[in-house]
User: Fold this.
Amino acid sequence: MVIFKKHQRFFILIILIVLWGGCATYYAQNIDFQNSVAQGDFEKANSLLDKNKKEATSKNKLLYYLNRGYVSWILQNYEQSNYYFSIAENTIEDYIQNYYLEALTLVSNPNVKPYKPEDFETVMVNYFMALNYIKLSKFDDAIVECKRINIKLNQLNDKYKDHKNRYQRDAFAHTLIGIIYEANKDYNNAFIAYRNALEIYETDYKEYFNITIPEQLKQDILRSAYLTGFYDEVGFYEEKFGTKYNYAPKENGELVFFWLNGLGLYKSESSINFTKIPNQEAGFVTMVNDEYNFSFPLYIGDKTTKEKEAFHELRFFRVAFPKYVERIPYYTNAKIETNTGLYNLEQLQNINDIAFKTLKDRMLREMASAIMRLATKKALEALADEQDEDLGTLLNIVNTITEKADTRNWQTLPYSISYARVPLNEGINEISFKTYTRGPGVNEQVFKFEGTKGKTQFHTYHTIASN
Assistant:
């Protein structure tokens, strides 16, 4: 009882931190919603979001509206979906550093702050808004959203002096811009967008994400060049692609089919161990990890004498950091079959790979601050223990409880996005969409579209199943 009265504020602090942050991951805390999405029960998922409106004003406000936007999109409530995504985007843009929370993070963990999205999550908002505008036949608005993707990526990467993201340009965004321009008969701008997409696939995506150039994109470039009258360009790309182009007009319109496959990653927690090595440079201590070949010099020249001593006494500690858990899609590939032929769905974007790569980039940028955060906690713990053994023990408990990684992320994103162009016949067309598993399994879904002269129709379909 004496110890409790003497240090009751610390006991209260421990209780508050446990209640505030909890030990479960974000995925586990929202397991009912996650299960509803995984089972394709989106009415239930929407109902769960309706019942959890307190999240709209919590530190998870952004994730709440991202999920609301996604669920409304898949329920085909496109205007409502863009309403929610607009709130999410405003939340991102209004994200202003809160210095009180930054200070609290130094002695606790990032979970105390409002959720700050990964860079690729930021631009995925514009993807969905563009898809919504396409379904609403607001093509100009859709193009604006696609252009904003590339503007955002430039702005995000300009912030990083070192360890820039490998995800700096987006091929899918340029492809989507081209598709929309072409649907509006603006073949010149469509050609420019397709050409930009090709250049990114040939460089960034080939090197970092192992995505090959879609064969359909090659045809898109050749067709738009031909329709613009750029016959020299047609010849150039015929030679480049090793093909001979023959223009075949789609007299009764066509269908652009986007396939969103599987569910993206969710975050769990991992830890990285660091040890201190001697540092000859005055005012610094160096923490290293041999497994990842990390070495981070920490400047402590501005610390008090006691704090410096505590830092020098550090020998070993663990830093909590988020890691992604991959959800392998149940279906490996898909085809569309009509009476005009068989069309493969080709991958445009692998969100799974982009997520892994960008998290690693962020880890390299933020590891030094994470080490300083934990080193500061350990140093304060040593100082407290020197002054009062009970106080040191309590602070050790607080530090152990609060060394948690931020496992929040947008968990309703797809694993990948693919597409195909399908010419339509006059009248009603039956489109057989077939998805294939790693074994002999195949699933078939039939859609009907009416062919209309000169009109491009769009359809997006998300297969949720994951292994």
About this structure: DSSP finds 17 helices and twelve strands in the chain. Residues 1-6, 96-108 have pLDDT under 50 and may be disordered.
